[in-house]
Amino acid sequence: MSITFSRILRRSLLHRRARSLSALVALTVSAAVATALLTLYADLDAKLHKEFRSFGANIVATGSSLPADALSSIQQAAGTDAIAAPFGYAVATTDRGTSVVVAGTDLATVKKLDDWWQVTAWPSGENDALIGQRAADFIADEHDLKLTFAGKPIVLHGVGHLKTGGDEDSRIYMPLTAFTAWTGASTSVIEVQVPGGSAKVEAAISRIKQALPGIDVQPVRQLVEGESRIVDRTHALMYAAVLLIALTVGVSVLATLSASVLERRRDFALMKALGGTQLQLMLLFLLEALVLALAGVAVGFAVGSGAAFGISELNFHTATLPRLSVVPVVLLLNVLIATMAALFPARVLRGLQPAALLKGE
């Protein structure tokens, strides 16, 4: 009986290839889209957070006189994967007699922290300087950059220009050790970049405040809130896309299976007349839909994994490898679509009248 049943099922799928292929394509699209979105979703947070890290610091710690160990304490409290850069500021006089803000910092760390800065060349020597594009207008000789602070002169070598569109363009950046030796000013601002969402940022702020209770620690609200909002909206968009595709595929498969039932009414009527039960007919029809759903998952997983890999490489420049963990979800989705789409046409089988249909009525 099982051999006969499987033979009928196979011949039923192959006899009407156009209908079967149409349903298979729809279910494959569903599985491919679901696989791609779920694969991307699995490490979406990490990729988006990594993209936001390129926008710079998300925590700023300030104080009129930060402790000597402030940087190490903040680094320890923020975590080993955080980036912390110290800044000291002073207003100096240029060789043209104009005032300019000079910032001392660890330029190697700033290069990692603010990799969105547009810099022609990063300084590497103790007397090298990075000049903002607006600050360059106040300088007569960038090669031998002469500055004076509180009557103390210094000569720096300008090696690169900086452009950000912000206050940084009006500053001159130099190594912190040379800055402190020249001005006597210490670090007054520490910018910190903590990987992760708003919850991790808030947790890091709490730890920093506990470690250094005398300083002001604030998140960069615009960046932190914007990151959280974009991540949440991206999640919602992916959920909505999967739901929309599922509904569209469901309608397509429903139409295909309904047409299949109408075309095969005489076949089903003949099976009933030969002793086939209502349950057997409905089971046969549902199994056809499930076989198509399984085939769609097999093909769709390969197509969707390839699409996820390409999208990740194109947008995030990192590969997203296939994830077998999404297969159960994709399988469940396709089975639900196929089952729901087959339920309505299957109900038509109940009302079949073999005698009337075989007479041609």
From TrEMBL:
This is Putative ABC transport system permease protein. It is found in: Cell membrane. The lineage of its organism: Bacteria, Pseudomonadati, Acidobacteriota, Terriglobia, Terriglobales. Pfam families: FtsX (PF02687), MacB_PCD (PF12704). Residues 240-353 form the ABC3 transporter permease C-terminal domain. GO terms for molecular function: transmembrane transporter activity. Keywords: Cell membrane, Membrane, Transmembrane, Transmembrane helix. GO terms for cellular component: plasma membrane. It is a multi-pass membrane protein. It comes from Granulicella arctica. InterPro entries: ABC3_permease_C, MacB_PCD, Macrolide_Exporter_MacB. The chain crosses the membrane at residues 21-42, 237-262, 283-304, 324-344. Residues 23-209 form the MacB-like periplasmic core domain. Belongs to the ABC-4 integral membrane protein family.
